[in-house]
Amino acid sequence: IFLAELRQIGFDSEGHLVCTKLQQRLKHVWLQGYILCRDGDDVIDLDDGSAVMSLDVAQIVACNPDASAALQAGRYVSCVCSVEFHPQEGILDLRVESACPLDDPGDALAEPFWFLEVAESHKLRELLRSQS
């Protein structure tokens, strides 16, 4: 999923939080991108090519030194985040549950071409949905 899609927040007919144009009920998301900055052991700003969003890293940094080393400014990472919405503040909170670097030599996913592949698959999925 792209970070820009997470900015499309709404509620479905049953009152559940939904994200993206496809109105998905998300509990976890998988993201890849570059870490622009890290604010201590609390927050990182991740740029996935579609948007920049802050991710909560406090819990994973406290219990996983390897993840802490991967979550440094300038690194290209893959992470799984839990999604939580705080309706009082209108804030979507993304908490990193796992992270691994993708910028080591030989990491095939570290190339920017995956952005194009994912964008193409999103277009195809929307086209197929509109035809059904």
Question: Can you characterise this structure?
Answer:
This protein has 132 residues and is of the alpha+beta class. 23% of the residues lie in helices and 38% in strands. The protein has three helices and seven strands. It has helices at residues 58-63, 65-70, 113-131, and strands at 9-11, 17-19, 28-39, 43-47, 52-56, 76-86, 91-101. It has a five-stranded antiparallel sheet with strand order 5-4-3-6-7. A two-stranded antiparallel ribbon has the order 1-2. Strand 3 (28-39) and strand 4 (43-47) form a beta hairpin. The longest helix has 19 residues, at 113-131. It is globular and about 45 Å long. The two termini are 22 Å apart.
Throw out a few tags for this protein.
two-stranded antiparallel ribbon, five-stranded antiparallel β-sheet
- Structural class, judged by helices and strands? alpha+beta
As a whole number of angstroms, the C-alpha radius of gyration is 16 Å
Q: H/E order of the elements?
A: EEEEEHHEEH
Distance between the termini: 22 Å
Low-confidence stretches: none
Total strand count, please? 7
The total of helices stands at: 3
Lateral arrangement of strands in the main beta sheet: 5-4-3-6-7
Helix coverage percent: 10-25%
Strand content: 35-45%
Instruction: Please summarize the sheet with the most strands.
Output: 5 strands, antiparallel
Mean pLDDT, rounded to whole units? Answer: 81
Shape: globular
